[in-house]
Amino acid sequence: MFARITGVGSYLPGQPVSNTDLLNRGVETDDEWIFSRTGIRTRHLADSSCTSSDLALEAGRRALAAAGTDAGQLDLIILATSTPDFIFPSTACLLQAKLGNQGAMAFDVQAVCSGFAYALTVAEKFIRSGSHKKALVVGAEVFSRILDWEDRTTCVLFGDGAGAVVLEASEAPGILATAAHADGSHHGILSVPGSVCGGKVIGDPFLRMDGQAVFKFAVRVLTDVAKECCEGAGISPSEVDWVIPHQANIRIIESTARKLGLGMEKFIVTVDQHGNTSAASIPLALDVAVRDGRIQRGHKVMLEGVGGGFTWGAVLLEF
Ligand code: UT7
User: Fold this and answer.
1) What residues have CB less than 8 Å from 253, skipping those under 6 apart?
2) Which Gene Ontology BP terms does the record give (predicted)?
3) 230 catalytic per annotation
4) Do 297 and 287 meet the contact criterion of CB atoms below 8 Å apart?
């Protein structure tokens, strides 16, 4: 018994916001700095009335339509986000209500930019155990809410969006291997170190990052976890048709490709158009590459993420 992706969907709010648009909105930056350091040209930013569950709803509906199924059939909803609508209930439960599903198990996964890889890993275990048959796995973020627009070293990097897959029990492959890890001792290099207490925000409600430390860490673990996942499936990295890394920075993606000995033509890249959408970045990129025909049934696809925590994980699948 495998867990197999039967439908993919995604959603981006509003119109693309260019690097020059950010400059015009008062961020002290320029297109050349952002593009040469990160590969980002545009990102999408949700307006203040739009929440992660709103974005998840659109992506989820598209994934359900692609799978030819409806929300009532789902028995599991896992939503990865670091920008939930509320402290509670979970964004997965809010999505469930918006989709009109009743009775599915629904919960959030919080692993920042590794969230989708973690969520897919968890969903696969439920399906392979036989306890659940049809899951909606979503990554959805409104990261623009936690950006300090006075901090040009971080605010230019991120965007909003959502991506989703329907995962079903199947005799055909299927997810072939998964790997996921964390090392909380690195929590300080990427965090939103605030909380709510007594009706007030205590600490800092904005994203803070040591960019160079994150960069080095990301390249190392993305390389290691891809190799680990290939070993788990008994294949070599060269047998992978497509790699969909977390879309944080083109230089991180290029360094990972070099370390894995793979050409960039195997990597799906959307960071130029989406920026870093955290837990949404992998399913957004997957949806782009499935819809434009690059990823076809039978292709071996490696999804891999890294993010605050620090967390990292990979899922190798036959699409
Ligand atoms: O999901 C994981 C998310 N995190 C990441 O992907 C981050 C990984 N790290 C990186 O991608 C890079 O470290 C950054 C792109 C964040 C920064 O690149 P860097 O080459 O490490 O630059 P830096 O922070 O060392 O800054 C270099 C210069 C500084 O100026 P001075 O002090 O040399 O005069 C910054 O003030 O670049 C300046 N700078 C900017 N200039 C224009 C920083 N941000 C900007 C900006 N526009 N937005």
Assistant:
1) 39, 245, 247, 264, 267, 269, 271
2) fatty acid biosynthetic process; secondary metabolite biosynthetic process
3) no
4) no
Ligand 1 nearest atom to the CA of residue 112, by list position: 1
Among 254, 318, 286, 282, which residue's Cα sits nearest to residue 117? 282
Question: What are the tokens at 19?
Answer: 């690097």
What separation in Å is there between the alpha carbon of 116 and the centre of ligand 1? 26
DSSP state of 187: G
Q: Is the CB of 276 under 6 A from ligand 1?
A: yes
Please name each of the domains of the chain with its CATH number.
2-172 (3.40.47.10), 176-318 (3.40.47.10)
Confidence (pTM):
0.97
What backbone phi and psi angles, to 5 degrees, belong to 95?
-65, -45
Please name the residue that has the structure tokens 């936690």: 146
Active-site annotation holds for 299: no
152 lines ligand 1 (CB under 6 A): yes
**Cα separation values, 166 from 81, 150, 197, 265, Å:** 17, 39, 37, 27
Q: Which two tokens stand for residue 277?
A: 């959408």
Bridge partners of residue 107, in order along the sequence: 78
Condensed to tens digits (0 to 9), the pLDDT of residues 159-203 reads 999 999 999 999 999 999 999 999 999 999 999 999 999 999 999
Q: Is the CB of residue 212 below 6 angstroms from any atom belonging to ligand 1?
A: yes
Catalytic site includes residue 181: no
pLDDT at 127: 98
Which of the listed residues 18, 25, 37 should we mutate to test ligand 1's pocket, taking the one with most ligand atoms within 8 A of CB? 37
Whether 38 is in the pocket of ligand 1, judged by its Cβ within 6 Å, is yes
